[in-house]
Structure formats: structure tokens, C-alpha cells
Amino acid sequence: RPRASARAQGRSAILEKFGGAAKGPAPHLRRAGGTAAVKAMLLQWCRARTRGYQHVDVQNFSGSWGSGLAFCALLHSFFPDAFDYGSLEPSARRHNFALAFTTAEERAGCVPLLEVEDMVRLPVPDAKCVYTYLQELYRCLVAKGLVRTKQR
What we know:
The protein is mainly α. It has a single domain (36-144), classed as Actin-binding Protein, T-fimbrin, domain 1 (Orthogonal Bundle), CATH 1.10.418.10. It has helices at 6-18, 34-50, 69-78, 93-108, 116-121, 127-143. Helix 3 (69-78) packs parallel to helix 4 (93-108). The chain is globular. Belongs to the smoothelin family. Keywords: Coiled coil, Phosphoprotein.
């Protein structure tokens, strides 16, 4: 039997941990055009929130998140008093992921869908895992009133 890839194992671990795939996009991200439009909107939102942060250039849901700094920048944009972004280094991946995920859980109430060990084990994060995590973070920030959405 062929061995599953590291990406497939990462996806499987998330699905096992949380009892299956999420049903549909995060709240308030539903727009005409389907999943591709939702992904584009979420990516644009991440790009806008992290614009101007050193060592961060969000272009996709995989390699752009590899150092952990994009997660840190995104969270820092909402919680600037949580940590000193300027002191972070791209090479300190384990520290960056731990800081981001802890901040998201403590400040935004975001379920820890990603594990630090899984993120540092892979040189390029799995796009589906990152996308799922960012949807959950967005949902939590909306629930806390930190992200304004258009009323329908």
C-alpha cells in the first residue's frame, strides 16, 4: 500500500481531529462565484491586513505562510499589544507559529486547528490546512466584532 504524502497526512490529521471537513466558507464570506471567489476574497483580506509588515508578502495559502510571520502579522494587525512584531525573525519558524497560534487562541478564541510541529515539519505549509485555519480565524474575529462585514 503506498504511503501518503506529508500534505495528505496533515489534512487527514485535521479532519480526524475535528470530525470531518468544514461545511462551506466562513460566515460573511459567501458571495456569488463559489469557492474560488471566497478564496480570492480571503486572500485579499489577508494581503490587506498584512500590507507593510516586514518579511511578509501574502500571495497564496502555502509558501507565503511558511515562516509563520504572515500569521503573526495578521494577528498583530488586530492585537498590536500582544507581542512586539519587530523582534520576530523569519528563521525562528517554531517560535513564530507558536506565538501566532497562541495569540489567536487566547485573543480571538480561535480553535487550534494547526499544530506547530506540523507546520515546522513541512518546508511549505499545506494550502488547504492554511486556508481552513484562516477561515476559522476570520469567523472568530467577526464573532468578536473585530472584522466589519456588509449587512445583507
